[in-house]
Write a structure and sequence with these properties.
The chain has no helices and 11 strands. The protein is mainly β and 121 residues long. Strands 2, 4, 5, 6, 9, 10 and 11 form a 7-stranded mixed β-sheet that branches. A 4-stranded antiparallel β-sheet has the order 1-3-8-7, with no helix packed on it. A hairpin with a 6-residue loop joins β5 and β6.
Length: 121
């Protein structure tokens, strides 16, 4: 059972990145998936999540209108599309899978290893 996050990199302010969270050993569509981020010296922060059966999406106010979460069940992945990136979005981004699409990281059972996103000119 494994989650693999990828797609991070260096982007200029206002740019876009697409992160991917790939699951192996289990069917990701049976789980809620959340994305979290952690900047240096700060606590891990919930960014957004998608429910399992309902497919409902939840967004932190800081990313609403800029970030989008989606599933690709054929590829057993969940993607995070990030637009209009700001320097404040710089962090290591983690995907996680759990029963419910909650904000509390302790509610998630499986975690990816994290991918660095740096927004800088």
């Amino acid at each position: 059972v494994q989650l693999q996050a990828s797609g991070g990199g260096l982007v200029q302010p206002g740019g876009s990145l697409r992160l991917s969270c790939a699951a192996s050993g289990f069917t990701l569509d049976n789980y809620a998936v959340g994305w979290f981020r952690q900047a240096p010296g700060k606590e891990r922060e919930w960014v957004l999540s998608i429910g399992s059966s309902s497919g409902r999406k939840f967004y932190a106010d800081s990313v609403k209108g800029r970030f989008t979460i989606s599933r690709d069940n054929a590829k057993n992945t969940v993607s995070l599309q990030m637009n209009s990136l700001k320097p404040g979005d710089t962090a290591v981004y983690y995907c996680a899978a759990g029963k419910l699409a909650l904000k509390d990281p302790d509610e998630y059972d499986y975690w990816g290893q994290g991918t660095q996103v740096t927004v800088s000119s």
